[in-house]
Amino acid sequence: MTQTLEEFGDYIQGMVSDRVSSHRVVNGELVLVTDASHIAPLLTFLRDDEHCRFSQLMDVTAVDRPNRVARFEVVYNLLSLVKNRRIRVKLSVDEHTPVPTVTDIYPAANWFEREVWDMYGVFFDSHPDLRRILTDYGFEGHPQRKDFPLTGFVELRYDEDQKRVVYEKVKLNQAYRSFDFLSPWEGMNHTLPGDEKATAEKVASNG
């Protein structure tokens, strides 16, 4: 199976060498690597070519690798029911480089791209309706980024006086504990009830 996938990858790269920078088999799945400028023509080929027929876009997601210059890896998962195959296409972009939308190739990309925009902040150029889809309208930032704080930037609550939901900056009031060492779990150095039995048994066994 792996050899077949490698041959299939060689076929695709041979047909569209200008659109595929590399390919490899990972965990029994063929992965193609491309760039933002070639994603639309590559997906069009994978959809229309007789040997590919990847007619279904199953998902578009992303991975944040903040230690890289091109920190975001956008991932497209495709399925061919005719050929009974799956394939994965990846590209890398930085925070400021837009990725062309593929909604005209796969209409299902509409909500997938909105989710990637909402969660990671990857901008999809020419998307017909690039709005947030999972977070609220007033949400700040992109919560799946590795540098996004777990608490978020704002919190909301219902204000009884204003009779509406209000947004406020997150305030973390750290409560510092005063350790008095009176709890048996906070460093007591005397014998607890019952410990004398273990001490006596140890002495008996050594004697």
Explain what the structure shows:
This protein has 207 residues and is α/β, with parallel strands linked by helices. The protein has a single domain (2-148), classed as 2-Layer Sandwich (Beta Polymerase, domain 2). Helices cover 23% and strands 26% of the residues. The chain contains four helices and nine strands; from the N terminus they run H-E-E-H-E-E-E-E-H-E-E-E-H. It has helices spanning 2-15, 39-48, 109-120, 195-206; strands spanning 22-26, 29-33, 56-64, 72-80, 85-93, 99-100, 124-125, 154-159, 164-169. The chain has a five-stranded mixed β-sheet. Strands 6-7 form a two-stranded parallel sheet. Strands 8-9 form a two-stranded antiparallel ribbon. A hairpin with a 4-residue loop joins strand 8 (154-159) and strand 9 (164-169). The radius of gyration is 28 Å and the shape is flat. The chain starts with a helix and ends with a helix.
Helix and strand arrangement:
Blueprint: H1 2-15, E1 22-26, E2 29-33, H2 39-48, E3 56-64, E4 72-80, E5 85-93, E6 99-100, H3 109-120, E7 124-125, E8 154-159, E9 164-169, H4 195-206
Parallel strand pairs: 2-5, 6-7
Antiparallel strand pairs: 1-2, 3-4, 4-5, 8-9
> Largest sheet at a glance?
5 strands, mixed
Roughly what is the average pLDDT, rounded to an integer?
Answer: 88
| Broad CATH class | Alpha Beta
- Unreliable stretches covering 5 or more consecutive residues: none
The side-by-side strand order for the widest beta sheet comes to 1-2-5-4-3
Tell me the count of domains. Answer: 1
The appropriate CATH architecture is 2-Layer Sandwich
Question: CATH homologous superfamily name?
Answer: NADH:ubiquinone oxidoreductase Nqo5 subunit
Secondary-structure content class = alpha/beta
What gross morphology would you assign?
flat
For the secondary structure, the number of strands is: 9
Which fold does the CATH topology refer to?
Beta Polymerase, domain 2
Beta content comes to 25-35%
Radius of gyration: 28 Å
Distance between the termini: 68 Å
